[in-house]
Design goal:
8 strands, 3 domains, alpha+beta, 6-stranded antiparallel sheet, 399 residues, Cathepsin B, Chain A
């Protein structure tokens, strides 16, 4: 499991980087929500806070010997110099040639060691000793297991009803049989939505209403925090379940038509995974460059003309980044189309309607598979929304 937390403020990178390190070291999400929100935290602040939880952070200066940095095996918090400003990031395995960086501002991305060293200040904190610290007790509302089970069953029944409608769309069945299955599909989907809506109401009554009665006054900001947390709490597990079902059922459907389609899906997933890795590698380099330009814009030493030139560079950089993303997405489409064409050639099919059908099925399966990996890593602000909720009601207690 990966723990990705974004900084809430422009100078909150140190606190966020420390929380990601603690959660990763102890393999426990709760450490993302410790009561540490210091603005512009220094290395000493991070050292003092980490020791409370049983982690000794040892400071090092590798500015004169970048080769020593490559030998590190323990997790570190590295201090970067981006656009004249200090910026902390968390790195789990600093001894690799391609570093996986957990950036409180840019999220997770990859950097080659060469690119990383261009921004590295030379200063870092190594988690040299880890011992058991205080137990962290989180008091945040959770999705009831009953809701998850009932909604999952309704989703499964809906999917099977739809498959029944597809299966009976042939000359061996009367038209009204397929129509009846479609009607059942829509009815089950409607019931699933109604049930989920009712569960949301009960969740509000038993959690948020009680919180405001006891602790807080209702504000627009508090409503936004609660809404974001509730949305991720309900949608994340149900999206995962739905994606798993769709991938499983469509894969079986393709295999029943021609087992070679599974080979086509595997080939597509492999090639698109390589493209995604390349995209993350480019994202790391381009994200740091963007942050560097943003920080330079707000540099007090720049005059108006210099700021304008820097902003123009940032706009051009954003355009280049967008062009790269567009190119990668087009390549993914080409890969899917190529995989379908190869499998159809092997199968002896040469019809545009079959090609379009299989292309969209391949696209749906690969999209859902990669959505599952994102949901698994929670790289979609899930932890940010939960942290905001816990901070709002102060529902965390070290013991």
């Amino acid at each position: 499991m990966e723990y990705i937390l974004h900084q809430k403020t422009q100078k909150g990178c140190g606190a966020a980087a420390l929380k990601m390190l603690l959660a990763s070291v102890f393999k426990k999400e709760d450490y993302l929500y410790i009561n540490f929100h210091k603005e512009e935290a220094s290395m000493q602040d991070l050292i003092d806070e980490a020791i409370k939880y049983g982690v000794k952070l040892t400071p090092y200066d590798a500015s004169g010997s970048s080769g020593e940095f490559a030998k590190l095996r323990k997790p570190i918090i590295a201090l970067l110099n981006v656009g004249g400003r200090s910026h902390f990031v968390y790195i789990k395995a600093p001894n690799r040639k391609i570093l996986t960086v957990y950036d409180p501002q840019g999220g997770k991305y990859y950097l080659t060691r060469k690119v990383f060293l261009t921004y590295f200040s030379g200063y870092f904190l190594e988690a040299s000793e880890v011992s058991s610290g205080p137990t962290i007790s989180i008091k945040a509302p959770k999705l009831e297991r009953k809701v998850l089970i009932v909604d999952t069953l309704l989703q499964i029944l809906t999917m099977f009803a739809f498959l029944g409608a597809m299966y009976t769309m042939n000359a061996n069945y009367y038209f009204y049989v397929s129509l009846a299955f479609l009607g059942i599909t829509f009815l089950l989907y409607y019931l699933e939505r109604l049930y989920l809506n009712k569960a949301l109401l009960e969740f509000d009554k038993s959690n948020f209403t009680a919180q405001f009665q006891n602790k807080k006054k209702l504000t627009i900001e508090a409503l936004a925090v609660m809404g974001n947390y509730k949305k991720t709490l309900f949608t994340l597990p149900l999206e995962v379940i739905g994606s798993v079902m769709i991938v499983g059922i469509l894969s079986v459907f393709l295999a029943l038509n021609n087992v070679y389609h599974l080979l086509g899906i595997a080939l597509s997933l492999l090639l698109i995974s390589l493209l995604n890795f390349l995209g993350d590698l480019l994202k790391g380099h381009l994200s740091l460059k963007a942050i560097n330009l943003q920080n330079e814009i707000f540099n007090a030493n720049l005059n108006a003309e210099e700021q304008e030139k820097t902003y123009a560079l940032l706009a051009k950089h954003s355009y280049d980044y967008g062009s790269v993303l567009i190119s990668l997405n087009v390549l993914k489409i080409v890969i899917l189309a190529g995989s379908v064409a190869i499998i159809m050639a092997i199968s002896g099919l040469a019809a545009i309607n079959y090609f379009l059908f299989y292309f969209f099925v391949y696209h749906l399966i690969t999209t859902k598979v990669f959505a599952l990996t994102v949901n698994e890593s929670k790289d979609n602000n899930h932890y940010d929304h939960k942290a905001a909720y816990i901070e709002l009601f102060e529902n965390i207690e070290p013991k």
